């Protein structure tokens, strides 16, 4: 009789509790990993800008924008830049900026986009090559695609605006000019035409 009672307790109580503990342990250790992997995949596919960091407003012309206003975002198909926010006429730790000489692409103008002095924003452009596609998605307008046509190294502050030609996108990566004690830069330019 005692063995029947012990067998009943084992089958009715001990085994279900042991199985429940094992299942809970597996769920507790495995599910968070699946969730975080799914979020990582989703965030890499939808790498969008957090607009709460910027002053955002509808616009049709850059003349309607103030310094620091959000213009749109830039990304590259062949280089893992993610989406990089572009603001108007001011350096920002969170974004790159469109120079004041930039004109709206929808009116045939050219964009000069300058990274900040920290190389992390556009540093990956070193891996680019002729033909790589750059995408500019504007907040108030459509998306524009460009192809890199050439790379120009060692452009000075005074030469920079001379590269702005209608219909072009110029990505400027700044570096400190240590030969000059002032706060001047020289640039590596990536010049792209419409794709």
Secondary structure elements and pairings:
Blueprint: H1 2-45, E1 70-76, E2 84-88, E3 96-98, E4 111-114, E5 133-138, E6 143-156, H2 157-160, E7 168-176, E8 185-194
Parallel strand pairs: 2-3, 4-7
Antiparallel strand pairs: 1-2, 1-5, 3-4, 5-6, 6-8, 7-8
Short structural description:
With 195 residues, this protein is an alpha+beta fold.
Word description of this protein:
By secondary structure, this protein is of the alpha+beta class. It is 25% helix and 30% strand. The chain is built from two helices and eight strands; from the N terminus they run H-E-E-E-E-E-E-H-E-E. It has helices at 2-45, 157-160, and strands spanning 70-76, 84-88, 96-98, 111-114, 133-138, 143-156, 168-176, 185-194. An eight-stranded mixed beta barrel has the order 1-2-3-4-7-8-6-5. The longest helix is centred in the N-terminal third of the chain and has 44 residues, at 2-45. It starts with a helix and ends with a strand. The relative contact order is 0.12.
């Amino acid at each position: 009789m005692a063995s029947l009672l012990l067998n009943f307790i084992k089958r009715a109580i001990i085994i279900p509790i042991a199985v429940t503990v094992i299942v809970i342990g597996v769920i507790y250790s495995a599910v968070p990993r699946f969730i975080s992997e799914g979020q990582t995949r989703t965030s890499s596919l939808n790498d969008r800008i957090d607009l709460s960091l910027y002053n955002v407003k509808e616009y049709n012309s850059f003349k309607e924008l103030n310094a620091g206003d959000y213009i749109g975002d830039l990304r590259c198909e062949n280089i893992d830049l993610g989406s990089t926010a572009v603001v108007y006429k001011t350096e920002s730790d969170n974004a790159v900026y469109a120079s004041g000489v930039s004109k709206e692409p929808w009116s045939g103008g050219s964009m000069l986009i300058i990274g900040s002095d920290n190389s992390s924003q556009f540093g990956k452009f070193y891996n680019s090559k002729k033909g790589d596609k750059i995408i500019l998605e504007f907040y108030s307008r459509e998306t524009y695609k460009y192809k890199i046509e050439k790379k120009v190294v060692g452009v000075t502050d005074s030469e920079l605006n001379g590269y702005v030609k209608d219909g072009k996108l110029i990505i400027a990566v700044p570096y400190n000019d240590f030969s000059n004690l002032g706060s001047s830069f020289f640039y590596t330019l990536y010049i792209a035409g419409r794709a």
